[in-house]
Structure formats: structure tokens, C-alpha cells
Amino acid sequence: MAFRLDLALCATVSAATLISLQSAAAQQAGATQLEELSVEGQGAGGQAGGGAGTGAPGVATNDGYVAKTTRTGTKTDTPVIETPAAINTVTQQQLQDRQPQNLQEALAYTPGVKVGAFGFDPRYDSFFIRGVDVTYTGVFRDGLRQFNSPNGLFRLEPYGLESISILKGPASAIYGASSSAGIVDLISKRPTDYKFGEVEAQTGSFNRMQGNFDIGGPINDEGTVLWRLTGVARNSGTELDAVKDNRAFIAPAVTFKPNDDTKFTILGEYMDSTTGGSAAYQNRYAPDDVLQSNPLGADKTPLAYKDFNDFRQKQWRAGYELEHRFNEFVTLHQNVRYSGLSTRQEYNGSYNMDTGLIRADVDGFAADTYLTTKVETGPARHTILTGVDASYLAYKERQAFGSFTDPHDISTPDYDDLTSFPRYYNQKQTLVGVYAQDEVALDRWRLTFGGRYDWFDSDLKTRITSLEDRDGDGDFTDYVKTPDRQKQNDGKFTGRAALSYVTPFGLTPFVGYGTSFVPNPGTVIGGSVTKPTVGEQVEAGVKYAHPGTNSLITASVFWLKQKDGVVFAVVDGQNQQTQLDFRNRGFEIDATGTMQNGVTLQASYSYTDTEISEPVSIGGKELTGIPKHAFQLWGGYEAKSGALKGLGLGAGVRYEGSSFGDNTNRSLIKNDPRAFVDAKVSYELDNLSADLKGFRLQVNATNLLDDVKQMCTSNYCYWDKGRQVIASVRYRW
């Protein structure tokens, strides 16, 4: 704890130094501030949704399906249309219309994002951006990195989010450790300056029962103290009998606004969830391969045994956001968060009636302090960002293995002695970085450039206990512990430069280049510590917002490469990390719109071409599980008048082309193209009677046609998630 406090103190002291360095420049007269953006309409679903631009003040503004501003792109309130990078946003209205149950479903209509690579798997929120697995390195919460370990990953409750911002391309120059493909920033619900309330009951497939609530508003008449409390309770099965989908979630938030210049928000969360440790199916293997390393496909025989398959995870976070404006030129921001999780994962297979148990504990601390300074140099207006952040990750993981035929099997209740686990991992990582960025506005030109230097330190301890024949009697009964310690110490510079041109008729072309650096937790196959991943990307594109309409179109081409990128492969029945060098290139186009006549639309297409460069043995091959072609289309309509007033309809289709099931690109496990159809119908009951004001009925279906195909990734085959239907009744006041 003392070390974490030292990091926070370091960030605070460094910020004070930055203030003194920038104060002289800040006093220049005539600095021009960006015009405040005004967005009309409730957008985020009325009161409880936060309203357009009010649910997360100072973080993002959205109007229906269309994002107007987001801090994710530059850490400032630069309009999305002017930011020289591809940014996709899942707005509050999209979340309410589609009712996603996890992060994968929330991102399913985002161009260039691949979800479902491991079929039906509720254990982790795993996904790819532009062909790069960013599950461990690309998820941020409210601008701070979300820490993970190899088997300890934070889960997302979508009901606790205001929106999701997806920034494409390297962001290490301002965010530090992150992927070259981009980051996904999860924006938490925050207190609002008006009173509201919402309760919701859900039921549906697999005996699902769920209750949600979201309430808040000002505490005092002056409106200087605001609060919000969001909660979820669920008890549900899944399409696999041995896999549950239960959770309890609570997220309190309080904002203090003593004056117009200072805002202090406390954000918290606790979630207790239980799902299945084995959510896959038995694989068939080539009969002439005794090593069982060449899967030909997946049977419909589940691996899980109901009596020993619970994967229980408790996770929590607590932090704050401070924003203080010294004057019209200088504003201080500080974001701090502590997060932790503890898991107990039971899993099993059916080849040798084997079982496994994993205990993982993760603690993470992050503090980001930065100064925003607005100055002018002749005709150029500058928004200068200078900051320092520090992060700390510590995780412990213990693994044990057994068999149902063993009387001392780990599935027996008495086996809970952590010292008996034959595999033990303990890793600590620290990362400290300093960064600067300048956004220059000169006439219609927008130039953004910046750089960062990170100091990285890692200490990994492992202990592997194995049976050996130490006395030479041919009986492998001697327990031998093999301790190991691997340290890393490194530093890396990353940078980003981008340029856009804002035309008066809504068209904004842009071009950019950036580099990335991210340390990785855990070990690779063979036990060596995972190396940091470095990458770079070049991107060019255009954005178009048709004047007079609430719409946005973004199109871009990109080329990126990564060295020592982390990928996964199933070896000896276990999913293990390995590292590859590869390059990806492609094209993306995305269009969103919310019209006054009640029509909403989101359409996108992406082309992703991947190629492995190292190791040479698979050089030129495509990355496993990544289709070249994919498109998503969602359309909705809500009647504003007439006999159908209050009726809402929506439907979407998600298509992806063929892909390979392993990095050697064997045709035996090539994935066929597939398409999934989703749908939604809703009705506002106050159109039947004024006494029912605030009541809404809604039914959502994912994979409506129940089209389930085999999906192979990283040498193992799964099955797509089948149809799920959820009905809800909601009351708002």
C-alpha cells in the first residue's frame, strides 16, 4: 500500500511542477476557447439515460446514435469530426436499444472489431481490433488502463455504462501502455444535475431473471452535491447446463461541485459473478496424431461437469476524478483508481476425466495527472496537454490439476490449501510515464502531435512442482519444486502526429502516424516472461457530417505492425500465450445517424488483411480467427405520432467472412462465413393510458435465426452462441 501511495504522491507533485512550468504561458492574453457544443434532444433515452450530453458531463456528448465529442481521442473536448483519428462510439441510445449482456455484444456492431472468436464463452470479454487481440491491453475504464492477468480479467456490466469510445490506432503517446490497434474506453455512469429514477425487470431464455435500478440527482437545493446508484441482480442459466450466468452488481457515484471551477467525482463498483470454468466442447482430433494437437472440429459434447465447474469472481474498484480550472487558460485534471479481483475457477475436460482449479488475485493502481493549457501564438490556437501517470499491477495465480479417478482429486471440498498448488505465479509491474501533446488550430487546419516516455519494471516469480524419479527406482513419486525469478527493466518512447482539415461543408480528411508500447503479464510457452509489445500504425481517412442532419460517416485505411504481439494457442489441451511479429492492413467505413422522424441507422464494413512475419516457419500466414471481410447493419424506427405512436422496431445483421482456425492456416479447420440476425421491439405504454406514463416494454433477440456454426481459433474449435431472447418492463420517473 505504501508503494501505491508513493506513486500517487509522485503524480501529484509532478503535476504541481507542470503547473509552475506552464503558468507563464497561460497568462498570455487573448487565448481563444473552443465554442461550447450544444446538443438537442434527450438522446440517451430520456431522464434515466442521462440525456444528450448530460450523463457524463465533460467526458462525452452524444445525440442518439451519433457521437459529438469525446475525451478519449485527445483527453480534451475536441469534437469527433475534428479529431484526426478514427473513433467509434457505442452511445447510451445504442446500449438501450440492443440491451447487450457483455462487452462483446456491446461492440458487435463496431467496424474492425471481431467478437465471438472463441464462440460461446461467458468467462471473459475477449475481442480483437483490426486483427489484434486487445483483451488484455486495450481496455480502459474512464481513461485509466484496466489491469488484467492471464486468468484474472475484469468483467463488464453494460448497464453500468454511459457509453463506450473506441479509439483506433496507437494511443500510447497519451495513455501509456496500450495496443497499436487502439483502445476501448468504458465510460461509467455519473451523477446528473436533475433527479431521476429507473427500475427494470427482465426475463428470458434459460430461466433468466434479472432486476436493474438506476437512481440519482442533486442531494441539496444548491446542486453542489450530486449522487447516483446503479445496480443489477441476475440469476440465469445458459445454453450449457453446467454454465451459469449469475451476478450482483452495485456502482455508487458522488460528485461535489463547490464552485463553477472545481468538480470532484468519486466512482465505485463491486460485482460478484458466477459462470462456468469450462464453456467449450470436446474436440475431435486426427487419428494418426497421438499428441492430439490437430483438432478437426468440435463435437456437441460439453466438457463441463455440473458438479465441478463454477467460476466465481469478485471484483471491485474505487477512484476519483478531479477537475479544477485555475483560470480561463489552465485546467488541472487528476484521475485515480484502485481496482482488484479474486477468482476461483473450476474447470474440467473429458479426455482423461481431468479437472483443474485456478485461484487468481489481481490488484491494480493507476493515477493520471495532467494539465490543459490554452494559449495563442499569432494566428495559431494551442491546447497543450502535459502530464504524468503511474500504474502498478500485482497478481498471484495458483493452478492445480487432478482427475475424477483420483481419491485426492482437487474437486473434493478438502482441497483448498493454496500451498498445495503445483503451479504458482507472482508478478509485479510498475510503469511511470511523462507525456506532452499539442493540438494546434490554424484556420481550418488541426495538427495534433505529442510524445511520451515510459519507465517499466517487472518482477515475475514462479514455482512449478512436478513429480520426478529422484532415486532412480523407476517410480515418479518425488515432488520437486522448481522456483524461478525473471526481471525486466525497460524504457520506451512513443509518439503520435496527425493532421486534419475541417471544411465548411462538413468534410474532414485526416492522416496520422503513431507508435505503441505495452508490457504484457504472464509467461509464454516454455515459461519465459512475456516480452513487451511494440507497434506502429499509419492511417488516412475522411469524416463527413452532412450539414443540417444528425449523422456522421467515417472512412479510413490503415497499415500497422506489431513486434512480439501476444496471441494464444492451445497446446497440450491448455490455452497458452505465445508471441508473434505480424502486420495488418485494411479499410473501414462506418455511418451512423439519428433522424427527427424516428429513424436510426448504423452501417459499417471492414476489410482486414493480416500476415505473420515471425517466426519464419509460419511467415506469410494469416492470423487465426480473423476474417478478411465483415459488415454490420442496424436500423430502427420509433413512431412519433399516429396510431403507432410509442412503438419502436429495430433489426440488424452481423456478417463475417471465412477465416483460419490456427496460425498455420490448415484447411481442415477453416471457418465458414456466417451471419447473425438481431431484433428489437418496444412500446411506451403511456400511449395506452396516462396512468402508465414511464412504463416501457421491450423484447430483444440476438441470433434470432439460431444460426450456430463451428468457430475455430488458436488450434481449438468452439460453437457460436445460439439464440437468446430477453423481455423487459421498465419504469422511469
TrEMBL record:
A Pfam entry, by short name: Plug
Primary location recorded for the protein, binned into one broad class: membrane
Signal peptide interval: 1-25
Membrane topology, from the record: Multi-pass membrane protein
Ranges where the TonB-dependent receptor plug domain occurs: 80-183
Keywords attached to this entry: Cell outer membrane, Ion transport, Iron, Iron transport, Membrane, Receptor, Signal, TonB box, Transmembrane, Transmembrane beta strand, Transport
Gene3D superfamilies (alphabetical): TonB-dependent receptor, beta-barrel domain, TonB-dependent receptor, plug domain
A GO BP annotation: siderophore transport
Family annotation (InterPro entries): Beta-barrel_TonB (IPR000531), Beta-barrel_TonB_sf (IPR036942), Plug_dom (IPR012910), Plug_dom_sf (IPR037066), TonB-dep_rcpt-like (IPR039426), TonB_sidphr_rcpt (IPR010105)
Family as reported in the entry's similarity comment: Belongs to the TonB-dependent receptor family.
Record's protein name: TonB-dependent siderophore receptor
Originating organism: Hansschlegelia zhihuaiae
